[in-house]
Design a protein that fits this description.
The complex is a heterodimer of chains A (212) and B (162).
Chain A lengths: L19 H17 L5 H10 L7 H12 L1 H9 L1 H7 L9 E6 L4 E6 L8 H4 L4 H4 L1 H9 L1 H9 L8 E6 L4 E6 L11 H7 L2 H5 L10
Parallel strand pairs in A: 1-4, 2-3
Helix pairs in contact in A: 3-4, 3-10, 4-5, 8-9
Chain B lengths: L14 H12 L9 E2 L2 E2 L4 H15 L5 H17 L10 H15 L5 H13 L11 E6 L20
Antiparallel strand pairs in B: 1-2
Helix pairs in contact in B: 2-4, 3-4
Classes of the chains: A alpha/beta (212), B mainly alpha (162).
Chain lengths: 212, 162
């Protein structure tokens, strides 16, 4: 593909990337080169991006959860192969990323963490919240998850509930299928979507029953 | 960051900064095409926020004038519009934004085109994922008082403690 060139310096490639994967790689490339050359810092870009983090919401993840709650066959496929199941809804990971969805049950609660950096299931959950990147969250969630959930997130799980903490890495992006709250039996998928929160899919919260 | 914006002490945190970004965005071409939700800038993909953050930050750090970015964006949008409808990718404001940023950087000779293309290719092909060599998987199990099956994978310590 060529673009008009009227004596101006040749553009880097002059093409418009057509896929999100391609353009996401170009954005990362530009940022990493600018950081290397001392022209910006990750922190400086973060500061601006964070102002808008809520604007890239976990809409995709909420769609997947609502579908899984409404369609047992889809849920089965999701738990077997989340990457494939999400593609059914047009939600794709970046190349090389596999998603694994872990299901909360009556006596098992799951949560995710990235122990080294801030790997996060972006395609479904949007941008990670600030605290997700803090070393304190990463370290304490591994050492004493029950206390962190209770003290930091107000999620006081019964002592009889087993807690599992999953390491989301660049290769495998874990995220949580929360339990469907009571009182939602007659709700449509669209209504259910509205209930699903980012925190519930990270595993630092649960989906509240409607009206609470 | 909020240069040029009168400080209003009763504003919640972040509002003055958002307004500073808003003021920049208002001066761009095709500003009515910028995706919004309830009046606020909205984003479909995380990369859109990163490219916005990068460009705004580099401008604020004095690496280029906003008028230079405006001119680059006008050029890119013009090129997109001039392409045959069946030969161009779907319209994306932030794709044009990123393209404009790439051109500014290339012209300023901070980065050579080869260097940029190679780096983008490394990210795309997965060669340059940050060193996330932590293994993934189940890290910690706190069984609580629930009886634990003997054969279940038990707590795996994080070797990497960096």
């Amino acid at each position: 593909m060529t673009t008009s060139q009227t004596g101006s310096p040749a553009p880097v490639t002059g093409t418009f990337p057509s896929s999100d994967e391609e353009i996401a790689a170009r954005v990362k490339a530009l940022e990493s080169l600018m950081i290397e050359k001392g022209m910006t810092s990750e922190h400086a870009v973060d500061k601006i991006a964070e102002m808008y983090e809520r604007e890239v919401g976990p809409h995709n993840g909420a769609r997947v959860v609502a579908r899984a709650w409404s369609d047992p066959e889809f849920k089965k496929r999701l738990l077997e192969n989340a990457t494939e199941a999400c593609l059914e809804l047009g939600i794709g990971g970046v190349q090389g990323e596999d998603m694994v969805v872990v299901e909360n049950e009556d006596d098992v609660h799951n949560a995710i963490v990235c122990t080294l950096c801030s790997c996060y299931p972006w395609p479904t959950l949007g941008l990670p919240p600030n605290w997700y990147k803090y070393p304190a969250y990463r370290a304490r969630m591994v050492k004493e998850p029950r206390a962190v959930l209770r003290d930091e997130f107000g999620l006081d799980l019964p002592e009889s509930t087993e807690i599992r903490i999953w390491d989301t890495s660049a290769e495998v992006r874990y995220w949580v299928l929360p339990q469907r709250p009571p009182g939602t039996e007659g709700m449509s998928e669209e209504e259910l979507q509205e209930l699903v929160t980012r925190d519930a899919m990270i595993g630092v919260g649960v989906v509240p029953a409607p009206g609470r | 960051m909020a240069r040029g914006v009168r400080s209003a002490p009763d504003l919640p945190p972040g509002v003055a900064e958002r307004r500073a970004v808003e003021r920049l965005v208002q001066e761009l071409p095709a500003t009515e095409q910028i995706p919004r939700r309830e009046g606020e800038l909205s984003f479909r993909e995380p990369w859109e926020v990163r490219t916005l953050g990068l460009v705004v930050q580099m401008h604020e750090a004095g690496h280029f004038a906003w008028s230079e970015f405006q001119a680059a964006l006008i050029e890119v949008i013009g090129e997109w519009e001039a392409m045959a409808a069946d030969a161009r990718p779907a319209w994306s404001y932030y794709a044009c934004w990123q393209q404009a940023a790439e051109r500014l950087v290339a012209r300023s000779e901070f980065v050579t085109p080869d260097e940029f293309d190679q780096r983008a290719d490394e990210f795309l092909s997965g060669k340059r994922t940050p060193p996330h060599t932590h293994g993934g998987g189940l890290l910690t199990r706190d069984p609580g008082s629930r009886p634990s099956p003997a054969d279940r994978q038990s707590t795996a310590q994080t070797e990497e403690s960096s």
